[in-house]
Design goal:
By secondary structure, this protein is α+β, with helices and mostly antiparallel strands. It has 6 helices and 10 strands, in the order H-E-H-E-E-E-E-E-E-E-H-H-H-H-E-E. The strands form 3 sheets. The chain has a 4-stranded antiparallel sheet with strand order 1-6-7-5. A 4-stranded antiparallel sheet has the order 2-3-4-8. The structure holds a DNA duplex.
DNA sequence: CAAAGCTCCTGACCGC
DNA sequence: TGCGGTCAGGAGCTTT
């Protein structure tokens, strides 16, 4: 599922496609994804130029030259596929869930595919976009200057819930999802059930460092898959990445000299993967 | 406030 | 081979 690094990779992949390349025509295969498309969706996009393709948390922001911005979220299963002018779709590709098609001025096509339809695309006036309900309460970007260990520690002290659940709260840090939260906690050697208020300032500092590292590295990996241009079926949205704990229940811990076995528990309805030996509460 | 529950949706997986 | 049942999971919204 796309998290911040994947979305950033999509952004980097799509930016050159839309650059100086007006949207000629948009086609919707259905009236909605997670939400109904904005009123006038097609009309607003037809003929528009994307003057800037940005990102905030896991949201892609297509800023148009007509005062509107297309805000897009990939949900769990959304992906984009960019096809050069005249380029056919990859063989064997499932087009059943291509819900949005962008035809560009130069003949390129950008397909948005989303089997589960947890994703969405909505239009907002560019002015005041930051006050939309999707963006207004977002916390700092994990790989930005605003994310400080001191600030996180302060907020953690007021929380009694488990650190794992808190890190998924977009108000605390924007853009972290289940996978990278598990990975960051593993690297920081913090048990996912640790109560936020029980974290020491040192632990908060170490945690912030690992959050930044794991996200930054994942973005680098995503960038390299872009260069390879060999992503399975060419879809932008996913790339191969080896995770140390995520989805590795029952497998050996990869930490040096550790004999632990990765465990899986459920917190707030979501899987948490961790090493009971490395991520010991008593640490 | 924080925290937990609900909701959307489909493909994958499992047992029969 | 096919059919039901179960489940994951981002995040806004609602409720406690």
């Amino acid at each position: 599922m796309p998290e911040l690094p994947e979305v950033e990779t999509v952004r980097k992949g799509l930016a050159p496609v839309f650059a100086d390349n007006r949207i000629a025509h948009v086609h919707l295969a259905r009236p909605n994804l997670r939400f109904e498309f904005s009123e006038g969706f097609v009309e607003t996009l037809n003929g528009a130029l994307v003057v800037h393709l940005g990102r905030r948390a896991k949201y892609l922001l297509f800023e148009l030259d007509n005062g509107q911005t297309l805000l897009s979220h990939l949900g769990m299963s959304g992906s984009f596929l960019a096809l050069a002018p005249g380029e056919p779709e990859p063989e064997g590709r499932k087009s059943k869930h291509d819900h949005v098609v962008f035809e560009l001025q130069d003949g390129s096509r950008v397909l948005y595919n989303d089997p589960r339809r947890f994703g969405f695309m909505l239009l907002f006036a560019t002015e005041g976009l930051e006050n939309s309900k999707f963006l207004k309460d977002l916390g700092p970007e994990p790989v930005g200057n605003e994310l400080s260990a001191a600030g996180l520690f302060q907020k953690m002290q007021r929380r009694t819930g488990p650190v794992k659940t808190a890190l998924l709260d977009q108000k605390l840090i924007a853009g972290l999802g289940n996978i990278y939260v598990c990975e960051a906690l593993f690297r920081a050697k913090i048990h996912p059930q640790t109560r936020c208020c029980d974290l020491s300032e040192l632990q908060a500092t170490v945690l912030v460092r690992h959050i930044r590292d794991v996200i930054r590295q994942a973005i680098e990996v995503g960038g390299s898959t872009l260069n390879d241009f060999s992503a399975a079926d060419g879809a932008l949205g996913y790339f191969q990445h080896r995770f140390e704990v995520y989805d590795r229940a029952g497998d050996p811990c990869l930490a040096a000299k550790c004999t632990g076995m990765i465990a899986r528990i459920v917190q707030a309805g979501r899987s948490s993967f961790y090493c009971p030996v490395c991520q010991n509460t008593e640490n």
